[in-house]
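Action item from last week, closing it out:
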Amino acid sequence: MKTRFDKALKDEWSDENSIDNINKAIELSKDIPIIDIIDPSSKIRHDLAEIVSRLKNADTLEMMNFNEMDNNLVN
């Protein structure tokens, strides 16, 4: 059975959509105390590897300026 670390090394989350990858990365990161990053346990290392892998495979987000869009619709 593969660990999450093994899956991260093989980019197994590359087929998932960006929203799922970002949301899962956020969910995982909420369970990691910042101080644990300095000397991580194996579980934390696996979580960090999954977070990085998921974020590397997510599309870049773009900011939308709704004010500009509203102005273009009015004109």
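Closing note: The CA atoms of residues 25 and 51 lie 5 Å apart.
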